[in-house]
Predict the structure.
Amino acid sequence: MKRKNIVFKALTCGLATLAFTACTDTWDSHYQPKPELNATETLWELIEADPELSKFAEFAKATGYDEVLSQNRFYTVWAPVNDAEFFVGKENLNWAEVGDSMINVYKFEFVENHIADYNHTATGTMTKNLVKMLNGKYNGFNGTAGDYTFKNATVAQANIAAKNGLLHKTTDNAIFTANIWEQLDKEEGISHLNTFLKSFNEIEFDRYSSVEGPRVNGQVTYLDSVFVENNQWFGRIGRLNREDSSYIMFAPTNKAWEEIYAKAKTYFVYDESVADRDSLQDAITKDFLVRHLVFSNTLQKSPTDSLVSYYNGYYRPLVFKGEDLEKLYANLVDTKELSNGTLNIVDSYNYTTFWHDTLRVQGESLLGDAESAEVPEYKQAVKSYASISKDSIDKYYQTSNGSIGVYGPSTPTGNPTLIYTLKNTLSAKYRIKVVLAPADFVNWRDTVLLPNKFNATLSYKDIAGKKKSVDVGKNLIYTPTRAKLDTITLIPATAAEGEDYFTFAANEYNLTSQETTITQLQIQGKVSARESGYDRTIRVEQVFLEPVTEE
């Protein structure tokens, strides 16, 4: 069974049509060597011949950059000398024994952190000058003549010309600063969170960032093919891999993750008829656990006063302020200031059970339902819609959206029957509530207020996947209050003494288009043909399931 937002597409990368060729004279002018430099050696030849750069040359060659820096493409290199901090403890590396994963780390965090595309000359006074490196990081290149710096390192010798670029020698290495997405890999204590998020990684070809070459047999070839990492979660909680973004993230430790996972999974129990019910329960539980961990700094009006979750930030924002904001920082283990924000590692999952939410259906929602032979009860009601004017402030602000569903009998002695469908119920406890309106709430001319009399029945799915029903009200009498909405709690016949809620054994969250929601509340007028003194019209502002949480 597929679940929208949960089962994501498999990792694919259909790039069979791409052909790779040697560099040609058709390169973009940005990549062309600069003849005015009048240099005869390549960047790699300069670096390899300089005894002060032998350690940098060793790492460049091990990561394949001896070939890259020998090409005609134009680069700028900031090469740290041999006594740079990075090389301490790495004096006698046996590259034959260094694994591919570690070589990739050296490539990304060190070599590519010191090389940039294009020409970056040290000239005049430079302030607030950021250079985008090959690894995507932005390093500052600033200063005045004779006193330039590259991030944290002093430039010892600048503007050494090569026929394919510029070389600057630095007294130290530029310190690599991870972004939040990269840092998740480095923190062993939050591996559960990291493993789940990274399981949705995809590698995609970036046509717009790649450099086109000549066409071969009608097919576009690329002189430089750029591949980028993508992840479904970037569009849901924030693009944590971007250097030009800024976020605040809270990351629960493995201990905190395990504790909240064990609790949260009880809300997502699928019935026994659902294929792969255990894996769906696992996926949806984890999905909810990561939804509100990230906050975009650009969306916050005042981060010290409140934080608005990036997830559904515009549609239905989840706002943390006051005590809720303080709780986010409770049991703080560590704080990392990173290249695109702050990562707070916490030893407890400091959120309320936001997944166990109130489920609401507006009272007038039945007006849009088509008459159906499968639901003959609809034919017994005369349905209409009442809009409460904002001028009636005392009434309007009692409602959730300024409207009331009005359902009258189809015959003088009949009764309406209403059926409300409640979607996305969890395997959890809810109070069943209905908000009813008196006649004068809808029409001020109706000065005589009579009570309603009705039965209420809840339909639900049991753990075997079968439709069941339970009485939640027998011959209930609603005595209206003049010009005031009243909320009635419906008590299930199966409730133990002192209980006022119903426990759903199976959840109906995130059903597919082929599945039908079973959870419904039926309200049926029960005024007999001979009874008088009752109002046969039922006016509903909303029906809702209120979560019962247990701390």
In short: The domain at 21-170 is CATH 2.30.180.10 (FAS1 domain). The chain is about 15% helix and 30% strand. Residues 387 and 498 are 38 Å apart (CA to CA).
